[in-house]
Amino acid sequence: MASARQVNIAIIGAGGVGKCFLSQLESLAARRQKQKLVLTYIATSKKAVYSDSYSPIALDSVVSTISSSSQAPLALPKLVDYLAASGTKTVLVDNTSSQDIADAYPRFLRRGISIVTPNKKAFSGSYKLWQDIFAATEEGGSLLYHEASCGAGLPVISTIKDLVETGDEVTKIEGVFSGTMSFLFNSFAPTSGSGGGKWSAEVAKAKELGYTEPDPRDDLNGLDVARKLTILARYAGLEVESPTSFPVQSLIPKELESVASGDEFLARLPEFDAEMEEVKAEAQKEGKVVRFVGSIDVASKQVKVGLEKFDLSHPIASLKGSDNIISFYTKRYGSNPLIIQGAGAGGDVTAMGVTSDLLKVLAQL
C-alpha cells in the first residue's frame, strides 16, 4: 500500500472552539488513512509551538504543550513565509475572531495555503477584503471554507453556495441567526404558558447560563447577526459594503451604551424593562410574539436586522431553546422555503463545522 501523503496543519486559536476542534482533529488524524495529518504550528494570542524543522506536535498533549511554551507567535507575514516554505500542502485553521488575521487571508491564500475558519470578520468586513480573499484563492490555487462563520455547524453557507452555483435564484432569506437572541426571546415571549419574566431578568439568566458574551451588550447590539446577514447577502449577489451599511436595531438602551462594564449594564437594565414589556404586549394584542430576526430581500436589495412580530404558528415563533432557523426563498422552492434549523452556537457544533470544512479541503488536496 502506498504511504499516506502528508498534509501540514497550522492552527491559530485554542480557546472554546479551538479546544473542541483539537479534540476532533485528534480523532480525525487517527482515522485518516489516505493522508497523514501533521500539526506543525499552533498559536494563541501570546504563545506558540513550532520548529524550524516542522516537527510534528503531538495532538494528545497539545493543550499542555502550548500552555507551557515560551515561544511567541510568529508575526503574520513571517507565519505566511514559514508555512509556505515547508514544501508540504498546508491548511491554516483560524479559530479566532481576529480582524488582523482575517485581513491577512489574501497573503496566505496567494501562497497556496488553504484556510478553514469560523471567523466571521473575514467575510463580513469591507467588500474589498471579500473580493481580495476570493481573488487570492484563484491566484494561489488554494481552498477556502467557512461554514461555521454563519450558524456554527448548520449547513447554511454550503446551502446558499449550492443554490447559487446550480443556477437557482435566491429571492429572500429570513431567520433567527443568533442562539443568544433565540434563547432570550423564546424565554421572554413564549408562544404558550403564562409568558416570560422581565426582560432584564431573562438577560441576566441567559448570561448566567453562558448564552451571552461576558458583556451582554456584545449580543444585544445586533452586530453579530448583521455580520451573518452580510455574508449571506453577498452570496445572494448583493454588494453589501459592511455590517453597518444597513439598518440594525440595537436592544441596548441609549443611556446604557457607554456604561463602564457588563455588570453595571445588567445592574441598571431593570430601569428599562417597561420598554420591552410594551413591545411584548403590543404583539400579544395582535395574537403574535416578538422575535429578533434578520432578513434579506434580494429584489429590493434590502437587508435589515431587528424586532419583528410573528403569528404563533410561524416556524420562527415556535423555535425552542437557543436554536437558529434560516429560511431560503428561491425561484425553485417557490412559496415553500428551504428551512435549516438547529443549534447555531456552542463549541462542539461550531468545531464540527470547522472539521467538516477541513475534510472538504483534504478531499481536494
Give a description of the structure.
There is one protein chain. With 365 residues, the chain is of the alpha/beta class. The chain contains 15 helices and 11 strands. It has helices at residues 16-31, 62-67, 76-84, 99-103, 105-110, 121-124, 127-140, 156-165, 179-188, 199-208, 217-220, 223-235, 262-268, 273-285, 347-364; strands spanning 5-12, 35-43, 48-50, 90-94, 114-116, 144-145, 170-176, 288-297, 302-311, 323-330, 338-343.
Overall mean pLDDT: 94
Task: Classify the beta-strand content into a percent band.
Answer: 15-25%
Strand order of the largest sheet: 3-2-1-4-5-6
Approximate shape: globular
Q: Count the strands?
A: 11
Q: Give a quick account of the main beta sheet: strands, pairing sense, barrel closure.
A: 6 strands, mixed
Unreliable segments of 5+ consecutive residues: none
Q: Mind telling me the C-alpha Rg?
A: 22 Å
Tally of DSSP helical segments: 15
Q: Into which percent range does the helicity of residues fall?
A: 25-40%
Structural class: alpha/beta
N- and C-termini, Cα separation: 19 Å
Order of helices and strands: EHEEHHEHHEHHEHEHHHHHHEEEEH
Write the topology of this structure:
Blueprint: E1 5-12, H1 16-31, E2 35-43, E3 48-50, H2 62-67, H3 76-84, E4 90-94, H4 99-103, H5 105-110, E5 114-116, H6 121-124, H7 127-140, E6 144-145, H8 156-165, E7 170-176, H9 179-188, H10 199-208, H11 217-220, H12 223-235, H13 262-268, H14 273-285, E8 288-297, E9 302-311, E10 323-330, E11 338-343, H15 347-364
Parallel strand pairs: 1-2, 1-4, 4-5, 5-6
Antiparallel strand pairs: 2-3, 7-8, 7-10, 8-9, 10-11
Helix pairs in contact: 1-15, 9-10
